[in-house]
Amino acid sequence: MVKDTERVTRIMQGLKCSEAEAAEILAYDKAVDRDEQTPYDLSQDKLEVARKFAHTGTRKPTAYNFPKKERKTNATKAGLIEELFAFLSKKSDFSTENVTILNKERQISFKIGEETYELTLVQKRKPKT
User: Fold this and answer.
1) Does a structural domain hold residue 48?
2) Radius of gyration of the chain (CA)
3) Residue 62: left (phi > 0), alpha (psi -120 to 50), or beta?
4) Is the pLDDT assigned to residue 108 strictly greater than 90?
5) Hey, which of 5, 29, 87, 128 has its CA 20 to 30 A from 103?
6) Strand runs (DSSP E) across the chain, as ranges?
7) pLDDT at residue 83, as a whole number
8) Residue 65 included in any domain
9) Strand order in the sheet with 115-120
10) Residue 82: which domain range?
11) Do both 80 and 114 map to the same domain?
12) How many CB atoms lie within 10 A of CB 118?
């Protein structure tokens, strides 16, 4: 453990102060470490006022409202899915079963024999110019 004389010399060198000032600083540091009353602490009545102003009461929780963006319907894709659905269920050369539209503008699921297939329609974006 570091002795008080070593601490005083370290404080004197670091803060460039006299030995008396360094001893006072060391005594103050020890008092703060032991949670003792110091001359710079607030009085009891001022401490109560400070606590009163520090606690302003309960805070309401912030309620975020993120509205869901309404997606525009793509009539072309919906029409293509409907036509593919009609073709697979009625006019296909394969014996398709359980033809269902999973997503009205994107995906169809069907079964041929024991295997299940999904058909996904993807529209590519226009290239940026």
Assistant:
1) yes
2) 39
3) beta
4) yes
5) 128
6) 96-103, 107-112, 115-120
7) 92
8) no
9) 96-103, 107-112, 115-120
10) 75-120
11) yes
12) 10
